[in-house]
From TrEMBL:
Residues 18-196, 324-502 form the 3-hydroxyacyl-CoA dehydrogenase NAD binding domain. It holds the Pfam family 3HCDH_N. It comes from Streptomyces vinaceus. Residues 199-295, 505-601 form the 3-hydroxyacyl-CoA dehydrogenase C-terminal domain. One of its GO terms (molecular function) is NAD+ binding. InterPro entries: 3-OHacyl-CoA_DH_NAD-bd, 3HC_DH_C, 6-PGluconate_DH-like_C_sf, 6PGD_dom2, NAD(P)-bd_dom_sf. This is 3-hydroxyacyl-CoA dehydrogenase. It comes from the Bacteria.
Length: 604
């Protein structure tokens, strides 16, 4: 069978000049807009006349906005509108060089569509499915010409999102993949080539993470607001996972996860029961007006107050007075936390194992403040006052009068327990004792003291002066006034506190590291390349960094340690660290700090 050549035509474009889009919902309409804007003749097909009218109106409105913003001339707009024709009969696709289907996610519906297209289109017409949940191989097998069937997965909204996943099955002919990849580039998109598995790359990683967030909420481990704030502020994501589930559609997410679980058998992909409960109740998210959150109306993105919304300015009770803060440690995190408190006006005692180390840590803070001054974020006077508030000390004995003691030493339980036993002896009665651990049980350090009710987790994120999030971790023994004290302190130092229980990974790491581990498994299974996975998550998921970029920055040894803690706590086989990650750590390839991790870096 002859397939379209990847060579350019006399017009300088690929072989696809006439393209049919079957299914004119939001995604189909968006794809049609992209194609028409790029000079293609677009045949829009939907069995609903109302859908065809909405698609035509949407394209008219979108192009009018482009004219108003001077991105199109009126003449160019008329050309775009003229290139888009709509029909309600599938026979209109007869002259198409490429057909892209974006009908609802149903094997029965899509398979019937492909069988009908076989009888309508030319032998060399390529058939592309826009599915993100169903097997492209299974769909191709139903076609008379499976070699011309592939996946072409755009992301919503299609005109704005750059990523396109080009999905080939074991049956797909390479020329078809090459032709569609060329088209995607001509549309101004970034195509990534992936194999056939539910969710492909971006959704395959994204939906597992969303599912874990839904399960975390369902377990009442943290509020919906705190889960979403933690992932936005702790990871720089554009939306929290529960708000994103509402945007995608709870029912859609459940369908994708069901397909992923059927393929992988991984419990991390088994849809959280809350997704089924919401979907069956018709609470599918923004489109219905209610999902995890309540919205102003169906289709609205405006969240309105409901029974679960926290009261504005609600107090947790009276906290303890805090004027002086002790910070134990001399590393980057300790210095950053000391700077945060000093900038907020607190007197700070910075204690290290020696006076020299403490003084060096204060000097590092001075350099950090100088950088802030040079960037115009701080005046020289404020920087000087901040530095004056910090008193370096070579012993924890200097913590005798502090109201709050914060440890930021090595992430080693024995080290932290030894330090807390010392704090218990040194600190005055009523002092709050806080650990910055990111993965260890807070209760384990609290129990070595004679006052576990005064101990709490206060997990800052690195770099502490810049990152707004603090995870506030109560143990079963933490007193209410200690909890209230730390919440108040967070607000005074201009941080956003989120409450969570004393469980491995708290919120951020418990959701982030399984996602990172799954990305490593994709590479380990030769499913996609490092570059394609990183590009997919940045372009398709809005992540500030791809998973492998982030792993190399965090440190592969740190990442492995956290994943081991999560696996030990939850005993889920899906959380077992990837052997590839373990091998790289064993080889000393720890990321940027060693010059080599998943990628190689120039040594400084």
């Amino acid at each position: 069978m002859d397939l379209p050549s990847t060579s350019s035509q006399s017009t300088g474009q690929s072989a696809f000049q006439t393209i049919a889009v079957v299914g004119l919902g939001t995604m189909g309409t968006g794809i049609a807009e992209v194609l028409a804007q790029a000079g293609r003749e677009v045949i829009g097909i939907d069995i609903s006349e109302a859908a065809t009218r909405r698609a035509t109106a949407a394209l008219a409105a979108a192009t009018a906005r482009s004219v108003a913003r001077e991105r199109l001339t009126e003449q160019e707009r008329e050309g775009v509108l003229a290139r888009f024709r709509t029909f309600t009969e599938l026979s209109a696709a007869a002259d198409a060089d490429l057909v892209i289907e974006v009908v609802p996610e149903s094997y029965e519906l899509k398979q019937r569509l492909f069988r009908e297209l076989d009888a309508i289109v030319r032998p060399d017409t390529i058939l592309a499915t826009g599915t993100n949940a169903l097997s492209v191989t299974r769909l191709a097998a139903e076609s008379q010409r499976p070699e011309r069937v592939l996946g072409l997965h755009f992301f919503n909204p299609a005109p704005a999102m750059k990523l396109v996943e080009v999905v080939s099955s074991v049956l797909t002919a390479p020329p078809a993949v090459e032709a569609v990849t060329l088209l995607a580039r001509e549309l101004g998109k970034e195509p990534v080539s992936v194999g056939d598995r539910p969710g492909f790359v971006a959704d395959g990683l994204l939906f597992g993470y969303l599912n874990q967030a839904a399960a975390m909420y369902e377990a009442k481990y943290a509020s919906r607001e705190d889960i979403d704030a933690a992932m936005r502020l702790g990871c720089g994501l554009p939306m929290g996972p529960l708000a994103l589930l509402d945007l995608i559609g709870v029912d859609t997410a459940r369908t994708v996860l069901e397909a992923m679980y059927a393929s992988s058998g991984d419990r991390l992909h088994a849809p959280a029961p809350v997704l089924g409960h919401l979907a069956e109740a018709g609470l599918t998210g923004q489109k219905s007006g209610r999902g995890f959150y309540t919205y102003a109306g169906p289709g609205s993105s405006t969240i309105v107050r409901d029974a679960q919304t926290p009261l504005d300015g609600a107090r947790l009770g009276e906290g303890r007075p805090v004027a002086t803060v002790g910070v134990a440690g001399s590393g980057t995190m300790a210095s950053g936390i000391a700077q945060v408190f000093a900038q907020a006006g607190f007197a700070v005692v910075l204690a290290a194992r020696s006076q020299e180390k403490a003084s060096a840590a204060k000097a590092a803070i001075g350099k950090s403040l100088d950088r802030a001054v040079s960037k115009g974020k701080l005046t020289e006077e404020n920087a000087a006052r901040t530095l004056e508030r910090i008193s370096p000390a070579g012993s924890l004995d200097a913590f005798a009068d502090v109201d709050l003691a914060v440890e930021a030493v090595a992430e080693d339980l024995a080290v932290k327990q030894e330090l807390f036993a010392a704090l218990d002896k040194v600190c005055k009665p009523g002092a709050v004792l806080a650990t910055t651990t990111s993965s260890l049980p807070v209760i384990a350090v609290a129990r070595v003291t004679s006052r576990p009710q005064d101990v709490i987790g206060m997990h800052f994120f690195n770099p502490a002066p810049a990152m707004k999030l603090v995870e506030v971790v109560r143990t079963v023994l933490t007193s209410d006034d200690v909890h209230a004290t730390v919440r108040e302190i967070c607000l005074k130092v201009r941080k956003h506190p989120v409450d969570c229980g004393d469980r491995a990974g708290f919120i951020v790491n418990a959701l982030l590291f399984p996602y990172l581990n799954n990305a490593v498994k994709m590479v380990e299974q030769h499913y996609a390349s490092l570059d394609d996975i990183d590009a997919a998550m940045k372009l398709g998921g809005g992540y500030p960094m791809g998973p492998f970029e982030l792993l190399d920055v965090v440190g592969l040894d740190v990442s492995l340690a956290i994943e081991k803690v999560l696996h030990k706590e939850f005993r889920d086989p899906g959380l077992a660290p990837s052997p590839l990650l373990e091998h790289l750590v064993a080889a000393g390839c720890l990321g940027r700090k060693t010059g080599r991790g998943f990628r190689e870096y120039a040594r400084r």
